[in-house]
Amino acid sequence: MVKKRIRFSPTRAQERFINRVEGIRLDPKSAPVDLAFITRELVLATLPHRQPNFVNGRPPPVWSRSNGHYTLSIQPGYTRNAQGQMECVGYPCGTIPRLLLLFLNTEVVRKKERVISLGKDLRTFMQKLGLSPGTGGGKRGDAARLKDQMNRLFRSTISFDYSDQNRASFVNLRIADAATIFWAPHSDDQPSLWESEVRLSEPFYEALKSSPVPIVPDAIAALKGSSLALDLYVWTSWMSYRAQQRRKGFTVSWKVLLTQFGSGHGSSKNFKRDAKKYLRRIELVYPELRIGYGMGYLIIEPGSKPAVLAIPKEPRG
Prior knowledge:
Layout: H1 12-23, E1 36-39, H2 41-44, E2 63-67, E3 70-75, E4 77-80, E5 86-90, H3 95-111, E6 115-119, H4 122-129, H5 142-155, E7 157-163, E8 168-174, E9 176-180, E10 196-200, H6 202-210, E11 212-215, H7 217-223, H8 227-246, E12 250-253, H9 254-261, H10 268-285, E13 291-294, E14 297-300
Antiparallel strand pairs: 1-11, 2-3, 3-7, 4-5, 6-10, 7-8, 9-10, 12-14, 13-14
Helix pairs in contact: 1-7, 8-10
């Protein structure tokens, strides 16, 4: 009896991912213009994957995530609603604020300016972030989601805390001092007469400038469908750099990784399953990465190389 061979047709999303993988060339001599950047602080602790659960019908006043001695906290912003009352705009969460932070950080590194231009039309800006202008103008379309997450991110305040037996320090960073958006409300590709822009707060601008981790834009484009995949990619690149510098790998338990990345993924079993799925994809876009697994832990092996070799020296602290 001859067994019939079953052929699987990839989905459009899978085809796009495969095309990205085939097109990626991780060249150590890449010029800075071909790179994107994210600050080290946002590698060590990351934004929420989902909107934090409401308490008594309201979002919590603060959300935090810890990584050892290091804690990131976020306070959401407020705006006046149609009834004249102040209401919370919500927390920046998911993939879009991560893409926005990558864009902002990259612009800061390249131009050394606090005022970041967002352009004259929404469609062009969406394309810069890797979002699709063709997803429609409804609530679930990329345009509406981008506008919502921009409002959340630019109005929020992020705190970085570090504490151990010898030292305790913190810094509160308002993301932006001001933002002006001139995009036409009913036409995403209709250019405005003026540039939309955001003016970063001085402390946040300095934080983005201080310790940027270079990453490969094509890899981000391939992984942008998942906030966890984006977080794991920038983290593995940073950890690979550290492993190479000390010529020794890192062993990290799944329990620690759940605390650092997994809020919103339910049980540790679910997080481990999802993380390993995305790590397999990351290995495709990041062939220099070497990952091993043990009983209850993940290993960044010493043979790993950072996605970009020109990572700045690791700062103290």
